[in-house]
Amino acid sequence: MRERLVVVGGDAAGMSAASQARRGRGPDDLEIVVFERGTDTSYSACGIPYWIGDVVDDRDDLVVRTPQQFREKHAIDARIRHEVVGIDTGAGRVTFRDLDAGSEDELAYDHLLLATGASPLRPDIPGLDGPGVFGVQTLDDGQAILDHLEGRDIRRAVVVGAGYIGLEMAEAMVVRGYEVDLVERSDRPMSTLDAGMGDRVAQAMLGMGIRLHLGTTVEGVEHADGDLRAVATGDGTLAADVVILGMGTRPNSGLARAAGIPVGPETGGIVVDLRQRTRVDGVWAAGDCAEVHHRVTRAPATIALGTIANKTGRVAGINLGGGYATFPGVLGTAVTKVCGVEIGRTGLGEGDAEAAGFHPVCATVETTTKAGYWPDTATMDVKVVAERRSGRLLGAQIVGGEGSCKRIDTFAAALWNEMTVEELLNVDLSYAPPFSPLWDPVLIGARKAWDAVVADTSAARRGRDDPR
Amino acid sequence: MRERLVVVGGDAAGMSAASQARRGRGPDDLEIVVFERGTDTSYSACGIPYWIGDVVDDRDDLVVRTPQQFREKHAIDARIRHEVVGIDTGAGRVTFRDLDAGSEDELAYDHLLLATGASPLRPDIPGLDGPGVFGVQTLDDGQAILDHLEGRDIRRAVVVGAGYIGLEMAEAMVVRGYEVDLVERSDRPMSTLDAGMGDRVAQAMLGMGIRLHLGTTVEGVEHADGDLRAVATGDGTLAADVVILGMGTRPNSGLARAAGIPVGPETGGIVVDLRQRTRVDGVWAAGDCAEVHHRVTRAPATIALGTIANKTGRVAGINLGGGYATFPGVLGTAVTKVCGVEIGRTGLGEGDAEAAGFHPVCATVETTTKAGYWPDTATMDVKVVAERRSGRLLGAQIVGGEGSCKRIDTFAAALWNEMTVEELLNVDLSYAPPFSPLWDPVLIGARKAWDAVVADTSAARRGRDDPR
Asked: What's the confidence (pLDDT) of residue A467?
């Protein structure tokens, strides 16, 4: 008998899952209906800052596949501007709203996949819901920002939050010729990097004329005559013609919670097993709305990244299509480029490691991206975090010039395999003068971290410290 | 009692070992004497093509540390222009020649490290030992080439051998404005890459005006009036004002062999154990002259690369200094850039895998270095070699535009840990539009290879093939 898979959310996780399920089961065997409340399916949210910053010309460039393509090529019924507003897991039925028609209806499912994503954090601050204040999550958000910018005389932008999106958007605003103020609660930009590693980023931002307000919170957003005027902060009032929110996201798990589908108390993400099944029969979850297993802390986490959404969606879809796949977890790997500085991280920073219960031993080295004598070699800093005594690699961070950040993937592969820094320092990595110093920065970082572990152990043996 | 370490060969392996031994044991405890027959210690041989090609200005840029620096900073007595010509392992004594003075003398050792390197292959061809024909191994070789080029009216260069050095030197000759013929015995340049993967390299070379003579051998080198005139090949006679040899190298193990120190019958490299000890008490070996364990074939190999020379030298030196270290082996990882094309490889190619006894299953994908919509994204080809049934990763090759080749290190880390391609395709690698498509090329390659392994297994199950 033909079954029906209903997918809630038509971006990376939802459409990856739908496509994989279709590969496993044909249209006569499995009907697939996707409800997406926005106007796009399967797009590159990570590309939005570059679209706004004019690196990418066209909204369509960021769309991987349209609803029409899914319908015609994959027999997937992807309905945009349709929002699922309720789930009855007992009856196996969703209630959905056609946002354009304003009508509501129900649809039965045999299998349900929740891929509802995450939403930008919008703290409860006066005026934050008013005009001129934007999150950066969907292409519709991007379009709204562009419409706002292009319809007025914009001179001053305030960006709230100095994480990946905040920094990328701050740069995009500079590229567009605006004065930019960046307000960040912590004491440094990119607080996912350890203290010290973010200095180079801060310098580059200052060099581009971005005003940094660190250790500062937003207290209110002021409007007059229906237009945005200013942002009140602990560092004074900043005139603003546009406000961009880059304070991170939270999983969209409210729909699941209301339906009695368990949500992690610490993460707010939907609890799933290795195959992406929720705790309720027939209901699956993938992408930003679901928990993932963090392979270093061994704890559940939520990470809103397209890579993870695609991978977990693929795993869910293979299983829904009658195959077998499990998702082995994440490391928290990420890269970006801000004001010409490349940034990469994987695993745990020093503070993360302590919070997780490790005793970290760290080493930071300044090295070069190419042979030292190569004409356009750039400097890069590598920080390696290892566990006391065992020397197990716990994480790494890279900040540097062109050609530095993708090396984080080598650390990620080492971390994935739970290598010690002593093992890592001997790995047969590549070398040629245009690409690396003879000892690749990854190896140098590992070697120095191993030296630090040995010194720490020796110090402990001599009684100056107690290594447990 | 003060002991004496004698090191034969003062480049990467020898000086790494000497430095590490010094870190472990002070000058009052261990005397260190290094004999180097050339005029430099510790230099970047890999940089020579770029020095000749004017990317690097100065010979001195390629010298990491001079004999004087070793003497003053590390109390290492590095004697250049001194060649060890005999070893008496029974008496614990070497015979050395002062090449400038022409005198010979003996020196006793407690520990002996052989770091004699490798020499360019010079097949027995008429005229190959005449003037105008050069190997590319030492800075002295590089200087001899430059002296030759700068002292005459050079118009035509013939490069023999299309491996790393041959290709890099061919490009350097084009950069200097010469007409270049490249003669290669096999049917493609970079025969360490599988057939198909080298096409892009060949195209780029043709695009720079290099004439390729593939499937062709050199039959003789013609001189007249003491000057080089032409190279006779199976493809006709090529006028030549300079000939560069890039046919690979062989380990300099003659000295060891003559002293009764076992040399591998297949590799020609000195046999060593995990700590870099030879089979003779008190004698160690490291670098290009010694065998290394290949972690994929599980067989001994010799690989003449600075990275391995440094690593094995470091391991020998730690042990000679009273510490403990073992060398875990190699993968055959290498990168280079030729005529704007980046090339990377690690582990086994398809043919290598068959020769080693594996049944390889392969996948090749064309992908991009950055997000597809990124303005200056480049294409890159990735070939992944996996084992039938198990899906174990056996090797990978990358050929592509800027930003492609260093990804080989991620494959190397995966290979080191004996991952399957199924495990690899889920690894949490980094993504951002300026650096990668959403699925990094490493992951795409692994995914396609896994698909190929599954298809191969299914085909076998259906009886169309027999998977052993």
From this structure: 47
**B71 part of contact set with chain A, CB < 8 Å:** no
Predicted structure pTM score:
0.95
pLDDT in tens, B333-387: 999 999 999 999 999 999 999 999 999 999 999 999 999 999 999 999 999 999 9
pLDDT in tens, B38-76: 999 988 888 999 999 999 989 999 998 999 999 999 999
Co-location of B232 and B254 in the same domain: no
**Mean pLDDT value of segment A9-17:** 97
| Element spanning A334, H or E | strand A334-338
* Residues of chain A contacting residue B306, judged by C-beta atoms under 8 Å apart: 431, 438
Mutate to test the interface with A, among B64, B274, B336, B409 (most CBs of A within 10 A): B409
Q: What is the pLDDT of residues A163-185, one digit of tens each?
A: 999 999 999 999 999 999 999 99
Q: Report the distance separating Cα B116 and Cα B253, nearest Å.
A: 7
Cβ–Cβ below 8 Å for B403 and A407: no
Full DSSP string of A380-444: EEEEEEEETTT-BEEEEEEEESTT-GGGHHHHHHHHHTT-BHHHHTTS-----TTT--SS-HHHH
Q: B310 and chain A: CB distance < 8 Å anywhere?
A: yes
- Among residues B289, B349, B301, which one has the least CA distance to residue B329? B301
**Considering its fold, how many domains does chain B have in total?**
3
- Alpha carbon of residue A11 to chain centroid: 14
Two tokens at A366? 């300044």
Inspect the interface and report whether the beta carbons of A346 and B406 lie closer than 8 Å: no
What the block records as the tokens of B217 is 């051998």
The CA-based dihedral angle spanning residues A122, A128, A133, A134, taken in that order and rounded to the nearest 10 degrees: 10
Is B46 among the catalytic positions? Answer: yes
Measured between beta carbons, the chain B residues lying within 8 angstroms of A50 are 374, 433-434
Give A122 to chain B, closest Cα distance, Å: 24
Residue A382, strand partner residues: A365, A398
Question: Where a domain ends, among B247, B263, B298?
Answer: B247
The reply to whether B204 and B148 lie within a common domain is yes
Q: Tell me, yes or no, whether B328 lies in a domain.
A: no
B393 touches chain A (CB under 8 A): no
ipTM strictly over 0.90? yes
Domain with A370 in it: what CATH number? 3.50.50.60
Within 10 angstroms of residue A22's Cβ, the number of other Cβ atoms is 22
Chain B, nearest residue to A306 by Cα: B438
Burial B72-98 (b: 16+ CB within 10 A, else e): eebebbbbbebbbeebebeebebebbe
Is residue B458 less than 8 Å (CB to CB) from chain A? no
In this complex, the residue of B328, B409, B423 whose CB is nearest that of residue A440 is B409
